[in-house]
Design goal:
The chain is α+β, with helices and mostly antiparallel strands. The protein has one domain (about 10-80). The protein has helices at about 10-20, 30-40, 70-80; strands at about 40-45, 50-55, 55-60. Strands 1-2-3 form a three-stranded antiparallel β-sheet. It is globular, with a radius of gyration of 13 Å.
Length: about 100
């Protein structure tokens, strides 16, 4: 697993993903950066993205605009929550020593 210490930009994106009401202005590039810090993201030849966070794998279509969709936010919230990351997360994987 990559180093899961998040910078301020990653923390802001994580907080935005869990914000209520849900923001419609979360940039795809910011989510890709966050996923890269917390897990693994691989762009496939068909333009889709294979995302692995914790033990979960999901395939996402590239967002048609610059922002992620509400469906993508829902899927990301589920994946992040199952991996132990949430709006109050300090960016460390649960059980890590530091």
């Amino acid at each position: 697993m990559p180093d899961t210490h998040l910078n301020n930009h990653h923390r802001d994106t994580l907080t935005a993903l869990f914000a209520h009401p849900t923001s419609g202005n979360i940039r795809w590039v910011d989510v890709v950066s966050l996923i890269g810090a917390l897990g693994d993201i691989e762009e496939k030849h068909d333009g889709r993205f294979r995302v692995t966070i914790g033990g979960e794998v999901e395939v996402f279509d590239r967002s048609h605009g610059k922002d992620v969709t509400l469906e993508q936010i829902t899927d990301l919230r589920r994946m992040l929550t199952h991996a132990g990351f949430g709006p109050q997360s300090d960016g460390k994987q649960p059980g890590s020593e530091d």
